[in-house]
Write a structure and sequence with these properties.
The complex is a heterodimer of chains A (about 140) and B (about 400). Chain A is mostly beta strands and about 140 residues long. Chain A has one helix and seven strands; from the N terminus they run αβββββββ. In chain A, a hairpin with a 4-residue loop joins strand 4 and strand 5. In chain B, strand 5 and strand 6 form a beta hairpin. The longest helix of chain B has 16 residues. Classes of the chains: A mainly beta (about 140), B alpha/beta (about 400).
Chain lengths: ~140, ~400
C-alpha cells in the first residue's frame, strides 16, 4: 500500500540527511569547532556559533526521553490511533522526535523512559525514507 | 537596569467583544477585534482617534486600516498566546520613551466560529512550512498543541513522581472558579451541557486526547475578542476608569519548536518573571493572586513553579491543597481559566482583561452587568505561555 502520511520535502541544506536515510544511515550535523552534534540541522552551530559544520554518520542509537500516546490525529495517521510519539536523546547528543515502535500504546504505563532505542527507516516514496525509532531494551 | 520603567504606564481599560464563547451566530476575527476596541473606547472615554500606538498578534496594519487610524508605533509581535503580555511590555517602553501616549492592544480570534466562517486574518508567520525543524517533525502525526504538551506531562511525572490525577486538581479547581463567572463557557448546565462543577474522576475518565492528557486537562477552543488601553500616568489620572499600574514586565523564550525544549519540566517564565519582579521591586511573596495561561493543566502547574510561587515538582499542590481555589490563600485563574472560561486559540488577552477587572475592583460587574467574583487582591502576577511551552511574557500588575 502506498505511504499515506505526510512526507517531508528536503531543502538543499538538509539533502545530506535525506540522502543518508536512503542508504540506511542517520546523518547528523556536527560543528567542527566545538564538536557538538545539534538537531535539527542549522546554518550555524547553536552552541558556539561557528558556521564550520559537517555531516557525520550517527550510531542510530539513543534513549527514550519522553513520550505521549496520540488518540487524535489527521490524515493517514488517523488510521493508526492510538500511536506513541516520543522524543529520543541521541547518543551523540541533542534530541529527535519520532513515532516510537515496539511499544504498546494501549498500556502506556508499561513504556519506560530511559529505554534504549534504535533507528530504522521506512520508505515513503522514491526519494524519501523516514526515520522511526524502536525500543530494543527497556530502561530504568 | 529596567527599574526606571516601573509604573511608567497604566492599563486604564479592558473590554471584551459583545459576545464571547461558543457563538451561535458565527463571527469573524476582525469583528471580534472591533467590538472590543469600541467597548474599551467607550469604557475609558478615550476616542479611537487618540490611539497612536497599535499592538496585536499579527494584525496591526490591517487593524489600523480598518479603524482608519495612522499610528506612530506599530507592533505586531506574534509568538503565540503570550504575545499580549509582551505587547504590554513593548507598549510601556514606547510610552516611557515618549513616542506614544495611548497604546491599544487588541485581540480577535474565532477559534470556534472559524469552522463556519473561516479563520480570517493574518497567518502566524512563524517560519515556513519547509523549514528544517518542520521537515524533521512533520512526518510524525502530531496534531496541534495537546499532542505536544502531553510529552511534557509524561516527563514531569517521571522526574517528580507525580501522576495525571495530581494535575486533575488544576482542572477541578479552575472549574470551581468558572461556576462563579456567568461569562464562563463552563459556568453551569445553562451555559453548556458539560458545564458546572466537576470531580477528579470526571477529569480522569474523560476521553483521552493525547495521553496522559484527557479532554478535561485541555483548554477550550472558543471565540473571543478583547482590547486594553495603556497610557502615561498624567492621562491615566484624568480618566473616569481606575488605572492598574504595570509595576513590572519581562519576556523570554526557551525555544520555538518543542524539539529544542531543553527541560520538559520548566519554561522561560523563570527568566521573564525574574525580569518582571526586578522591575517592580517586588517578589513572589508580594503577589496576592495569579493569572497564568492554563492551555493544559500541566502548563499552569509548571508556570507557578517558574514564578517562584511553588517549589519545583509541587506546582499542582496549590490546587490540590486549595490555595488556588475560591477563598484560598492565593487565588489563581479567577475567571475560570482557558480550561473553563474561554480560550480562543491564544489566551493572553483574557489574562489581561481579568487582571484589570480584579485590580480595578470591577470584576463584580462581569459583562453586561452580570455578577462575578471580586477577590480584593491589590497585586497580581500575570504569565502568558506561547507556542509549545516556548515563549513567556510576565507582568506584575498593581492596583492604584
Amino acid at each position: 500500500m502506498a505511504y499515506d502520511k505526510p512526507i517531508p520535502r528536503p531543502s538543499p541544506h538538509t539533502m545530506p540527511f535525506w540522502e543518508g536515510t536512503k542508504n540506511g544511515k542517520l546523518m547528523l550535523p556536527r560543528c567542527t569547532h566545538c564538536n557538538r552534534v545539534h538537531w535539527y540541522p542549522r546554518h550555524i552551530c547553536p552552541f558556539c556559533h561557528s558556521t564550520a559544520l559537517e555531516w557525520i554518520e550517527g550510531s542510530g542509537e539513543g534513549r527514550l526521553h519522553t513520550f505521549a500516546v496520540q488518540h487524535r490525529a489527521f490524515g493517514g495517521w488517523a488510521e493508526e490511533i492510538p500511536f506513541v510519539t516520543a522524543y529520543i536523546d541521541l547518543d551523540e547528543g541533542d534530541r529527535m522526535l519520532t513515532v516510537l515502535r515496539g511499544v504498546d500504546p494501549e498500556n502506556p504505563e508499561s513504556i519506560r523512559i530511559g529505554s534504549r532505542v534504535k533507528v530504522e527507516f521506512e520508505q515513503a516514496d522514491n526519494d524519501i525514507h523516514i526515520p522511526f525509532w524502536r525500543v530494543v531494551e527497556e530502561g530504568a | 537596569m529596567n527599574t526606571q520603567f516601573s509604573r511608567s504606564a497604566a492599563i486604564v481599560g479592558a473590554a471584551e467583544a459583545t459576545e464571547i464563547g461558543y457563538l451561535k451566530d458565527p463571527k469573524t476575527a476582525i469583528q471580534l477585534h472591533i467590538e472590543a476596541i469600541k467597548a474599551v473606547s467607550d469604557q475609558t472615554g478615550i476616542p479611537i482617534s487618540s490611539i497612536d500606538g497599535i499592538f496585536s498578534a499579527g494584525w496591526s496594519s490591517e487593524l489600523a486600516e480598518h479603524l482608519g487610524i495612522h499610528p506612530k508605533y506599530i507592533d505586531t509581535t506574534q509568538v503565540g498566546g503570550c504575545s499580549f503580555e509582551m505587547h504590554v511590555h513593548h507598549a510601556m517602553a514606547a510610552i516611557y520613551a515618549g513616542i506614544i501616549d495611548v497604546a491599544l492592544i487588541s485581540h480577535g480570534q474565532n477559534g470556534y466560529s472559524m469552522r463556519k466562517v473561516g479563520g480570517s486574518g493574518p497567518r502566524r508567520g512563524l517560519g515556513n512550512d519547509n523549514s528544517p525543524a518542520s521537515q524533521m517533525t512533520s512526518a510524525y502525526g502530531l496534531s496541534g498543541a495537546p499532542s505536544n504538551y502531553s510529552h511534557a506531562m509524561t516527563r514531569y511525572n517521571y522526574v517528580y513522581g507525580t501522576t495525571p490525577e495530581d494535575f486533575a486538581h488544576v482542572a477541578k479547581v479552575t472549574r470551581d472558579w468558572a461556576t462563579l463567572n456567568p461569562r464562563a463557557v463552563m459556568h453551569s448546565k445553562e451555559t453548556h451541557k458539560a458545564g458546572g462543577p466537576i470531580t477528579i474522576e470526571d477529569v480522569q475518565s474523560a476521553r483521552i486526547v493525547s495521553w496522559p492528557l484527557t479532554l478535561l486537562h485541555c483548554c477550550l477552543v472558543t471565540d473571543h475578542g478583547g482590547a486594553v488601553l495603556l497610557t502615561r500616568p498624567e492621562i491615566a489620572r484624568s480618566l473616569k476608569t481606575r488605572p492598574v499600574w504595570v509595576a513590572g514586565a519581562g519576556e523570554s523564550m526557551g525555544h520555538s519548536n518543542m524539539l529544542e525544549m531543553e527541560d520538559f519540566t520548566a519554561t522561560s517564565a523563570m527568566a521573564s518573571s525574574a525580569a518582571a519582579y526586578e522591575m517592580a521591586g517586588m517578589g513572589p511573596d508580594d503577589m496576592e493572586m495569579a493569572l497564568v495561561y492554563d492551555s493544559f493543566t500541566v502548563t499552569a502547574a509548571i508556570t507557578m513553579e517558574m514564578l517562584g510561587l511553588a517549589p519545583r515538582g509541587q506546582g499542582y499542590r496549590l490546587w490540590k491543597d486549595g490555595d488556588a481555589a475560591p477563598g484560598g490563600r492565593l487565588p489563581i485563574n479567577t475567571n475560570g481559566g482557558g480550561l473553563s472560561f474561554n480560550h480562543s486559540g491564544m489566551y493572553g488577552m483574557q489574562l489581561l482583561i481579568e487582571a484589570y477587572r480584579q485590580l480595578s475592583g470591577t470584576a463584580e460587574d462581569g459583562i453586561n452587568g452580570l455578577p462575578g467574583k471580586q477577590t480584593g487582591a491589590s497585586t497580581c502576577i500575570v504569565n502568558g505561555t506561547g507556542g509549545s511551552l516556548s515563549t513567556t511574557g510576565t507582568l506584575v500588575l498593581v492596583a492604584d
